[in-house]
# Entry
Amino acid sequence: MLAWTKNAQEPGGLALADVPEPTPRPDELLVRVDAFAPNPGDLAALASLSDGAIPGWDGSGVVIEAAADGLGPQAGERVVFLSLAARGWAEHRAVPHTMTASAPRDVSPERLATLPVPATSALRAVRRLGSVLGRRMLIVGATGAVGRVAVQLAARSGAHVVAVARDGGQHEELRRLGAHEVHGTTEAVEGRVHGAIDLIGGDELVRAYSLLAPGGTAIALGHAAGADEHFPYGAFVADPATADRSITSFFLGSEPGLPEEMAYLAADRDLDVGPLDIRPWTEVADWVASGGARTSGRPVFRIAHDD
Ligand SMILES: NC(=O)c1ccc[n+]([C@@H]2O[C@H](COP(=O)([O-])OP(=O)(O)OC[C@H]3O[C@@H](n4cnc5c(N)ncnc54)[C@H](OP(=O)(O)O)[C@@H]3O)[C@@H](O)[C@H]2O)c1
# Structure
């Protein structure tokens, strides 16, 4: 089968190569990969892969062979999947059934491919903040794949959503998705928030923490700015107005329950994943070599199969 493999000599550090078919373990399904949408984490991980390794965490496709232990989706089912062991940018891959969910047949593979890492992260982050009904919730980096879903899930959970996005051209869109307030930076946010989901890090995370009400939590989910965090003296000195505030780290793969969560998101036709920039998968290396930018929408790569 064909797969993108790390090859430091090639443009984008990737070469499309003929590689052996995967050999699933007893708890793994063999899937035909139909589409994948690279995440920032996929791109960051490329540098540390050894030559010959296949990148790619998540995607969508169809089960070729069910897991030998009989669990999980069965042959012929449409599925979404993720595995932080990578190997996803390939015609076929083996994935554990604990990281695979059945998806409706009438939802496109390209849409499904956008969901596993970002939408599940957003769902888990919103849930981690507990009941947000009637409470102010801050989402920093709201235009990204995670932030966009987080805005929608928080709004439908009854939160007063305070979205922060540096691109003013996207503010109206964020209001349409359910944000009640939209700001260009956390510096412009007034009043306290019950919880925060931060995708940016650096100064934005420091300020998100400072905006927390007593008992509030800031989830440091993403680090898109790639910047250090410096908390000023006093940030952690508590008084009645600042008591019991916390910052927590986040790792998508740290809890069970992914299949149920991905199945819920895959079946959710109301979730707006935004415009997609669908390309043939043969263009992956060129896209990576050009910087992996989003232009007309979230890049999704489609694999055309002969069978
Ligand atoms: N911990 C985990 O398990 C986990 C899981 C999923 C994602 N993540 C992390 O979460 C972050 C977001 O992921 P994503 O998939 O949503 O990424 P994405 O779709 O590429 O979105 C990135 C977001 O960050 C904004 N941004 C980038 N650089 C910025 C800067 N210097 N200042 C302010 N805003 C900036 C972008 O704004 P523009 O729209 O203006 O470009 C966009 O809103 C990434 O760091 C990713 O690695 C972590």
